[in-house]
Amino acid sequence: MATQLYALSEENVSHVKDILAPDIIESPVLDNMEVFNRLRIKVIEDIEYAQTQIIFRRKGGEARRYKEGSTLKSTLGFMDESKLVMNQIWSRYYENLQNFREKQPFSILGSNGTYNAPVTEFILRQIGKQFAGDNLNNLFFGDIELGEDNPLSLYNGYWTIINKLINQGKISSKEGNLVACDPITDSPETQDGENFDAFVEWVEGWHPLLRNAPEVIVYMSQKQKRLITHSYMRKFTGLQTTSAGSEGFSFVGMENIKIVTNGVIGKGNRMIATLPENLQFGLDRASDWNAVMMSHDPNDLNVLIFQVQSTVGARILDIAPSKFCVSDGTIEQIEQLNGDYQKNTLTVTSNNEEWGKVTLSPQKDVYTKDETVKLTPAAESGYKFKAWSDGATISPRDIVYNGYPTYLQAIFEPDDEG
């Protein structure tokens, strides 16, 4: 016997959404905390984000004895601000109202607004996880100059911050916080130990205070780590491989250096060396901008649009060479981890092309944002069009392409009356 399911009204969904809104807004921290901890990134919340920390930059020079009566000229340094710039960000997510169904009729329990709606809560929490994933994709490669239609424009990530500081001359070989590194490659011509030797030479180029700090975090791509550690193993033990995925690998004589990798860092041979928690991520939970709003798709009242708004930002606290160094080289983003924006495509399919097909008008390879496309399902003899994969039953159907990956499937079924 089939289980009866009870559909929630839009008002019911909105009630659950309001209860879960604080968790969804804070999901960039809550759902990504494991990554932040593994990468030793400090998370700043509440009013602390607004504090501009003043960093003292030494200009160098030497302390030495001088003859009595002579003048000693010494410039100690200058004060520099390290501000955590917060950005008001938003992302939209789509869900069909027909998916909000429970085994029991929806009811609010007690005066505190509690409820029993596990399916609805699961769907809404998935929106929070999606929002967390979108934020994580910006952690190293976000760039607000890409424009609000680009999913990598939520806030400036660490590589973007570094590039801007290089352009400003604050990170350079002259300043001592940019040190060149010989190419680390997987070329057949690379000799045993050569990649490790290149890494050691880069480390020796760091400021002595950074090199000898109790703990140094080195961010690099997963491939870069594999090439260096394998080179080390071949040079000193004759082994060809080491344990895959090990985050705690250390080198003899450099036990204070911890190599960390994660897909969000990217792919390439560029590396960052810094002290723990010098990379920071902030979220302002008290901002008036924060909200989870719900509205309708203008083309289909069954489609709900959830807009999540939050206030976040990232910074590198101190780029002094005694605390920070970056290598030369290149780095680029791996495809988005949550896959949402890997390809900006419009995909329309049939659940069984022998039962029916869909025609698009206009028919073209590339659609531009805000372009209207007509979808017409055509059933074969003995079959009929039932619905679209998002629950809508409109046929034919006009959609406005929003510039993001859109997937719809026409569902056909046997026509028992035919």
Oligomer: single chain
Q: Indicate the structural class.
A: alpha+beta
Quickly count the helices: 8
Quantity of strands, as a count: 24
Radius of gyration using CA atoms only: 28 Å
Largest sheet: 5 strands, mixed
Helix content: 10-25%
**Beta-strand residue fraction:** 25-35%
* Overall residue-averaged pLDDT value: 81
Would you summarize the structure shown here?
The protein is α+β, with helices and mostly antiparallel strands. The chain has helices at about 10-25, 25-30, 35-40, 120-140, 160-165, 195-205, 210, 220-235, and strands at about 5, 40-45, 55-60, 75-80, 85-95, 100, 110, 115, 180, 215-220, 255-260, 265-270, 270-275, 280-285, 290-295, 300-315, 325, 330, 345-350, 355-360, 370-380, 385-390, 395-400, 405-415. Helix 8 links the parallel strand 10 (about 215-220) and strand 11.
Would you write up a description of this structure?
With 418 residues, the chain is of the alpha+beta class. It is built from eight helices and 24 strands. It has helices at residues 10-25, 27-30, 33-38, 118-141, 158-167, 194-204, 208-211, 222-236; strands at 6-7, 42-45, 53-58, 77-82, 87-96, 101-102, 108-109, 114-115, 178-179, 216-219, 257-260, 267-268, 272-274, 279-283, 291-297, 300-316, 324-327, 331-332, 346-350, 356-361, 372-379, 383-388, 397-400, 406-414. Strands 2, 5, 14, 15 and 16 form a five-stranded mixed beta sheet that branches. The chain has a five-stranded mixed beta sheet with strand order 9-17-13-10-11, with no helix packed on it. The chain has a three-stranded mixed beta sheet with strand order 19-24-22, with no helix packed on it. A hairpin with a 2-residue loop joins strand 15 (291-297) and strand 16 (300-316). Helix 6 (194-204) crosses helix 8. The longest helix has 24 residues, at 118-141. The radius of gyration is 28 Å and the shape is elongated.
